[in-house]
């Protein structure tokens, strides 16, 4: 597969192309910058951190607000509990999220990668730690080239300690969504934690440290499947971070205040700042590439240069192919409208399914013994009913057989289950007729909430009887 998205072909003079100076040191050392899109990214990153780190500690009705309880196979989210039988709803939610991502990609390219993807967000956090401990780009390049000494060891140690600390908190939080985080953290920091939980915390600590500290853009370029297939979703009206060559070329230095057009120049002063701030180390002036994660750092850097030069902003910006060709971007296009319509239908169906979700569920398991004769001489079958109260309150239930003339249900038919309780109830069904009309007949069990008759669930099974009695 090509590593260039077929978005725009730009004729570049190779002699005028600058490589990022940082690339000569074997790593990408990005330069600090400021601007609107950086601030926007900080807002998104802050929201993601608050959501990820904060939600795990939040309590709701005396329980962790969001918890995928692996031990009991339950998923708690803000007072609602989902059981394995409900996971079809979770699958539907994931499909809606994937569809939403496709729609956003058609509209604005890789904004997910640039602003919300955890890989990018944690990488920016690790890069900030790098800046705090090792200085800005030029200092880091100098430090990388310097021989090992006290200062280099101290700065590098501090950086890796910070990275590992963030990795540990990330790993703990992630595992804390699957096993209650408060006791987990208490056991971890008192060195009493062992076994599976400790393994997974260390695993995710290492994964965070490696992905955000060392692999960084390599994850986006070589490991992320989204980067591979997102190019097929682009159309000529998709917004993507792009350089406008018709305005920027020919690039070259010039005196501030001079008219570039008189010198045969465009607006690009060839300062390479757009390359120096790029976390993936590419030159956006070469055209849109698969390695571009759409972070807009180059837009901020170039807008700053344009301001200093007294030129209009937007030499690099969010542009569609149509706009780059001098045409108009079509916002309302059939593909986007189709995605919007499909998303609306899917979200509506999910909301309806959530509202209609039965708050009591029942499964019937027939005993392996086919039948037996009871003390009254009746043929009897044994069943085990698994009943779940999916509400957050204790509920009283009634059990009965539906349309089962000639059969009698024996066992507890009225009982109470605590909030979220699953109970296994053994019952038997006796056949009242002496001779069965068939060796196997269908039976329907129904469980009904005594206070809310609309809350009910049914489950089918079979009654087996000997024909030659
Ligand atoms: S930052 Fe702008 S002016 Fe400087 S090289 Fe990049 S495109 Fe040209
Ligand atoms: S070229 Fe680099 S800096 Fe510009 S949006 Fe793409 S990844 Fe970000």
Automatic annotation (TrEMBL):
Q: Name one GO molecular function term.
A: metal ion binding
What is one GO cellular-component annotation here?
plasma membrane
Region (Disordered) location? 442-469
Q: Which InterPro entries match?
A: 4Fe4S_Fe-S-bd, 4Fe4S_Fe_S_CS, Cyt_c_oxidase_cbb3_FixG, Electron_Trans/Redox, FixG_C, Ig-like_fold
Matching Gene3D superfamilies: Immunoglobulins
Q: Give every 4Fe-4S ferredoxin-type domain span.
A: 257-287
Residues passing through the membrane, by range:
40-60, 87-108, 162-181, 193-212, 336-356
Which sequence ranges form a coiled-coil region, renumbered to this chain? none
- Which of UniProt's keywords are assigned here? 4Fe-4S, Electron transport, Iron, Iron-sulfur, Membrane, Metal-binding, Transmembrane, Transmembrane helix, Transport
Chain intervals with Polar residues compositional bias:
442-461
> Mind telling me what this protein is named?
Cytochrome c oxidase accessory protein CcoG
């Amino acid at each position: 597969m090509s590593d260039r998205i077929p978005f725009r072909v730009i004729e570049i003079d190779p002699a005028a192309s600058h490589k990022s100076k940082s690339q000569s040191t074997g790593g990408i050392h990005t330069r600090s910058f400021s601007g609107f899109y950086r601030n926007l990214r900080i807002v998104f990153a802050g929201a993601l951190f608050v959501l990820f780190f904060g939600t795990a500690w939040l309590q709701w009705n005396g329980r962790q607000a969001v918890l995928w309880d692996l031990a009991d196979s339950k998923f708690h989210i803000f007072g609602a509990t989902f059981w394995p039988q409900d996971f079809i709803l979770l699958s539907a939610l994931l499909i809606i999220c994937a569809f939403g991502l496709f729609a956003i990609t058609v509209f604005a390219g890789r904004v997910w990668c640039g602003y919300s993807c955890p890989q990018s967000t944690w990488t920016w956090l690790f890069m900030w730690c790098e800046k705090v401990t090792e200085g800005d780009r030029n200092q880091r390049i100098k430090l990388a080239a310097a021989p090992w000494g006290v200062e280099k060891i101290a700065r590098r140690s501090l950086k890796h300690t910070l990275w590992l600390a963030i990795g540990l908190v990330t790993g703990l939080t992630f595992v804390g969504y699957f096993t209650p985080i408060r006791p987990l953290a208490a056991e971890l920091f008192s060195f009493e934690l062992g076994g599976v939980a400790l393994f997974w915390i260390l695993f995710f600590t290492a994964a965070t440290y490696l992905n955000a500290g060392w692999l960084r853009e390599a994850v986006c370029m070589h490991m992320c499947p989204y980067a591979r297939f997102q190019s097929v979703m682009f159309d000529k009206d998709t917004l993507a971070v792009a350089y406008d060559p018709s305005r920027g070329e020919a690039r070259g230095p010039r005196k501030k205040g001079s008219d570039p057009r008189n010198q045969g120049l465009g607006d690009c002063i060839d300062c390479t700042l757009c390359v120096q701030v790029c976390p993936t180390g590419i030159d956006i002036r070469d055209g849109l590439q698969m390695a571009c994660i759409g972070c807009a750092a180059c837009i901020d850097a170039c807008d700053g240069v344009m301001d200093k030069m007294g030129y209009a902003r937007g030499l690099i910006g969010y542009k569609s192919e149509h706009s780059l060709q001098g045409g108009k971007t079509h916002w309302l296009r059939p593909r986007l409208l189709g995605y919007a319509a499909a998303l609306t239908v899917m979200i509506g169906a999910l909301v309806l399914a959530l509202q209609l979700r039965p708050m009591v569920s029942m499964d019937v398991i027939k005993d392996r013994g086919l039948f037996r004769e009871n003390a009254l001489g009746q043929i009897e079958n044994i069943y085990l009913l698994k009943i779940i109260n999916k509400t957050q309150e204790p509920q009283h239930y009634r059990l009965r057989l539906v349309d089962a003339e000639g059969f009698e249900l024996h066992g507890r038919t009225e009982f109470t289950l605590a909030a979220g309780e699953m109970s296994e109830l053994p019952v038997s069904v006796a056949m009242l007729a002496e001779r069965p009309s068939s060796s196997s007949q269908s039976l329907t069990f129904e469980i009904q909430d005594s206070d809310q008759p609309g809350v009910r669930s049914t489950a089918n099974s079979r009654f087996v009887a000997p024909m030659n009695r």
